[in-house]
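Hi V.,

Quick status before I head out on leave. The structure for the redesign project is tokenized and pasted below; the design run finished overnight.
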């Protein structure tokens, strides 16, 4: 009998010592910028929780959350996020940082984008010139913003022309395709700066409210997916990313390399 109790105690001890992990579904732009590689190793050292990052477009990340296939989400598709919150699929949504989208293209700027007064006017110039354009085409937050801007400019976002290319892939690869084709593209600021030297592209648009890009943490409701969501581990990562010192690190990320921060923290004054 003692042997059985001893075995059970040993198994319990092993389970307690087993490394915990969680699945973090995140937009490719945050992964491609290098921010997660900067922050997550320290989280694992502090907590012992391994973070398995699945970098996909925001649409795919939100589907993972809807289906209970991720423990925590980081997305930049506000309308879709708020709908999941309304439906009760996610229990909380916390905006943690922002930057802005930029229209980038070859420095020689054959369509005259830099002289346009707004993002929609810039797209109208690109369309009128039938200039090369690279779209994401992957239901990501960036792709959804592209579609919104094309509609605002008076065009059908599904309408293409000879110079139009849809990559169906992430931000980093899409930037590289645009660089190779000397094409225009919509990018988040962070990934553009991280890939600028590799692509030779230039930022041609100016910051405006229509190009604001907000990133939020979303926690799926574990009650909807019994036994599938690592809610405690997800809560620990959420607490880490919203902590004042980590928010300060987000606000400094990229400054040394690029001369400017890639993201603006939204909870910098929070104290946990």
């Amino acid at each position: 009998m003692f042997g059985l109790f001893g075995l059970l105690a040993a198994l319990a001890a092993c389970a307690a010592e087993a490394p915990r992990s969680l699945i973090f579904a995140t937009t490719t732009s945050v992964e491609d910028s290098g921010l997660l590689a900067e922050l997550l190793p320290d989280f694992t050292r502090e907590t012992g929780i391994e973070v398995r990052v699945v970098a996909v477009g925001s649409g795919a990340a939100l589907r993972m959350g809807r289906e209970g296939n991720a423990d925590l989400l980081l997305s930049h598709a506000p309308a879709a996020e708020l709908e999941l919150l309304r439906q009760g699929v996610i229990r909380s949504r916390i905006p943690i940082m922002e930057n802005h989208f930029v229209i980038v293209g070859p420095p020689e700027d054959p369509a005259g984008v830099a002289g346009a007064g707004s993002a929609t006017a810039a797209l109208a110039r690109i369309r009128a010139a039938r200039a090369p354009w690279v779209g994401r085409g992957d239901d990501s937050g960036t792709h959804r913003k592209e579609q919104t801007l094309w509609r605002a400019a008076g065009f059908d976002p599904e309408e293409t022309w000879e110079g139009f290319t849809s990559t169906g892939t992430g931000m980093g690869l899409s930037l590289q395709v645009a660089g190779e084709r000397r094409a225009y593209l919509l990018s988040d600021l962070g990934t553009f700066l991280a890939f600028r030297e590799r692509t030779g592209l230039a930022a041609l648009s100016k910051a405006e409210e229509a190009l604001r890009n907000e990133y939020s943490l979303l926690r799926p409701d574990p009650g909807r997916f019994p036994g599938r969501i690592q809610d405690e581990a997800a809560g620990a990562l959420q607490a880490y990313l919203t902590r004042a010192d980590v928010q300060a690190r987000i606000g400094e990320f990229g400054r040394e390399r690029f001369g400017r921060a890639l993201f603006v923290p939204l909870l910098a004054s929070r104290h946990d």
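Above is the designed sequence. Confidence is low (pLDDT under 50) at residues 7-19.

G. will cover questions while I'm gone.

Best,
W.
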